[in-house]
């Protein structure tokens, strides 16, 4: 009798240990499922050439998709065995849908931007500014034209980070001495900005600005006649070496 009771006790202990391990595994998997969203975002940030390019690399989030899927599968398996793990199924389903929704579009539809740094040299030649030879760029290329309203048609919108500190210092010094670069955007000039900038324009991000009329070869001035003009808008942070560039057509009514 004693041996039988001891055997039953050992079997019970083994069962309890097994249940403890399974419950612990399910709890950790639940936590890891929630954290997987942040792991996916961190992975996207780590492989993106720059923050503004992150949308084109959202497919990297799919690498963590097995975590919520495992939470769903194991949740279903162990729920049938009597374990309380509905939260694993629910959390896994929500996180899997979120990760899939964020990652799949960039995988199937391709990049929304381009990363050809050669465009910086083209802009520099157009506006008459010697740009640094090395850096990173993300450009939203709208093809022929992208109409934001009846007046503005945007061609390209770029964010640039210059990498060589010596070149950043050189450009910063040249910009500070160049009268074509202004310290702010005057009220009468706001109408020359691309529509997307006119509503959310903040001078705090940059300290030098240029509005170049490529049609008239004029800087920071309003056209005297009505018509459609091609513009370049540049905003530069002389300390950080970052620049925003927008190439667009603007219809001016005088």
UniProtKB/TrEMBL annotation:
TM helices/strands, residue ranges: 25-45, 57-77, 89-109
Keywords of the record: Membrane, Transmembrane, Transmembrane helix
Entry protein name: Uncharacterized protein
Organism, scientific name: Luoshenia tenuis
């Amino acid at each position: 009798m004693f041996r039988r009771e001891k055997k039953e006790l050992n079997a019970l202990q083994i069962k309890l240990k097994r249940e403890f391990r399974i419950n612990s595994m399910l709890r950790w998997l639940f936590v890891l499922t929630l954290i997987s969203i942040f792991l996916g975002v961190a992975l996207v940030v780590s492989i993106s050439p720059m923050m503004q390019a992150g949308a084109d690399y959202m497919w990297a989030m799919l690498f963590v998709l097995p975590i919520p899927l495992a939470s769903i599968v194991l949740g279903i398996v162990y729920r049938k065995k009597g374990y309380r793990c509905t939260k694993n199924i629910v959390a896994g389903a929500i996180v899997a849908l979120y990760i899939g929704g964020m990652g799949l579009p960039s995988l199937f539809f391709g990049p929304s931007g381009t990363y050809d740094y050669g465009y910086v040299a083209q802009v520099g030649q157009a506006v008459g500014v010697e740009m640094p030879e090395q850096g990173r760029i993300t450009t939203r290329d709208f093809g022929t034209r992208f109409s934001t309203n009846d007046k503005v048609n945007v061609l390209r919108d770029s964010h640039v980070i210059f990498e060589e500190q010596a070149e950043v210092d050189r450009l910063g010094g040249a910009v500070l001495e160049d009268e074509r670069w202004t310290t702010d955007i005057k009220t009468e000039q706001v109408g020359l900005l691309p529509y997307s900038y006119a509503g959310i324009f903040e001078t705090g991000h940059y300290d030098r600005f240029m509005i170049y009329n490529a049609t008239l070869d004029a800087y920071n001035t309003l056209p005297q006649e009505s018509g459609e003009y091609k513009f370049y808008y540049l905003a530069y942070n002389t300390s950080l070496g970052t620049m925003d560039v927008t190439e667009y057509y603007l219809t001016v009514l005088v």
